[in-house]
Amino acid sequence: MRPLLIIFACFGLVTCSTTPSLVEQIRALGELRVVTRNSPISHYVGLDGPMGPEYDLARGLADRLGVGLHIFVPESFDTTLDELVARRAHIAAAGLTVTPARHARVDFGPAYSMVQPQLVQRQGDRRVSSVESLAALEEARIEVLAGSSHAEQLARLAEEHPTLHWHAIQGVDVDELLSRVTNGEADFTVVDSSEFMVARHLYPELRAVLDLGDPEPVAWALTRRRGDASLREVVSAHFATLDAEAELAAIFQRYLEPVQDFDYVGTRAFVRHFDTRLPRYRDYFIEAAAETGFDWRLLAAIGYQESHWNPQAVSPTGVRGIMMLTQRTASSLEVEDRVDPFQSIMGGARYLARQHARIPERMPEPDRTWLALAAYNIGWGHLEDARILTEISGGNPDSWVEVREHLPLLTQRQWYSRVRRGFARGWQPVHYVDNIQRYYQVLQWMTAGDQEEEPADLLASQ
Ligand code: GLU
């Protein structure tokens, strides 16, 4: 009678199986088993125990399923997926890039991030700016994590460049790879942009010189079982909810904000836009830079802050286009069509040059440029007022750092009543310039491999 009963029971179910689904197994076990790796953007043991974005994400799923969480790090990164295949873990949450070779072995949840693989070397060493020149360096030692997406990628590149040699290192983590390059034990490594974004604060003597390939999706790897999508469905629902509640972004931000001055959500979008949008406008920025004397990457950073390089951008106050010009500014710059990317970029660059020219020449760079940018944002008059307040309080009105401190005082009556133009949202240009400085810094870093010489120290050569 028993088989009959099972068949009967199956009629009411959408997926009918005599063995419990993966999710039912996890519930029965009372434990979600997650394999991870040690990294500031995956998992690490902090003062209060395990922490990190992957840890929080996994903890959330375990809570959702009403089970405990068992999270562990394998001896060596290259055995991470073996843990899934051998059914010692249900999920690998380890900043894993989705690659074809991995897809053949395991399932993946939804991509929750995009990362750009980057070649990293020491500052001061002869800069490598192409795969060809890397492959030509026969003596150079390139090290990557054994079993990583980067090892897979180098193997693909070696098909085209047979002289390319590298070492896949077992039993290390990304941090150790970077420290080996710093110490000269290796000359190059390949790491994800997200890793390097954090690590560059710890290893200032390193730099990312070359993007290898395109940005790649990162996702959880999941145990695969034929005909059983239960785990993938639960994981997808988990990420969808986190995304809808803005919790996904908050998790990464929580960890990344203290270690980097660039938010994670911003970074993800930035890397994506750098790849998809900037190439369309890059030549315009270069042309506008040639005319005005600014570094093109500074102009591009302004464009990113203004509109995320979206020519259709429009604000509730009616400013428009890549450089978000007002109608009045646009007219004064002879910009006929603010939505036209070239006109907008040229107009923005000329407007910045105009602000820059109004700031006394005696002022040193880069302060003069930062002050010009603040004027670009809040208007020349309010900037002048903030410089006066800086002077009144005994500060140096020619120093951006000091004027930056005083700009927010323009919101306080006891201060703004002492200057000509009165109240202004003084914190606005502070955020504005801060953001542009970060975008500019990241752009310099991301385009570092594009040229042979060091990026110009001066922001403007006027
Ligand atoms: N995302 C890489 C991978 O999936 C590991 C991280 C790194 O090397 O930066 O293999």
Question: What secondary-structure arrangement, pairings included, does this model have?
Answer:
Blueprint: H1 2-10, H2 22-29, E1 31-35, E2 44-46, E3 49-51, H3 53-65, E4 68-72, H4 80-85, E5 91-92, H5 100-103, E6 107-108, E7 113-115, E8 117-122, H6 131-136, E9 142-145, H7 149-160, E10 167-169, H8 174-183, E11 188-192, H9 193-199, E12 206-211, E13 216-218, E14 221-222, H10 230-244, H11 247-259, H12 264-276, H13 278-292, H14 296-307, H15 327-332, H16 341-358, H17 367-378, H18 380-392, H19 400-406, H20 413-416, H21 427-446
Parallel strand pairs: 1-4, 1-5, 9-10, 9-11
Antiparallel strand pairs: 2-3, 5-14, 6-14, 7-13, 8-11, 8-12
Glutamic acid (GLU) binds next to helix 7 and strand 11.
Walk me through the structure:
- It is a single chain.
- The protein is built from 21 helices and 14 strands.
- By secondary structure, it is α/β, with parallel strands linked by helices.
- Strands 4-1-5-14-6 form a five-stranded mixed sheet. Strands 10-9-11-8-12 form a five-stranded mixed sheet, sandwiched between helices. The chain has a two-stranded antiparallel sheet with strand order 2-3.
- The chain is globular and about 80 Å long.
- Mean pLDDT is 86; it is low at 1-15 and 452-462.
- Residues 95-97, 145, 148-150, 174, 191-192, 195 line the site of glutamic acid (GLU).
Quick synopsis:
With 462 residues, the chain is an alpha/beta fold. The protein has 21 helices and 14 strands.
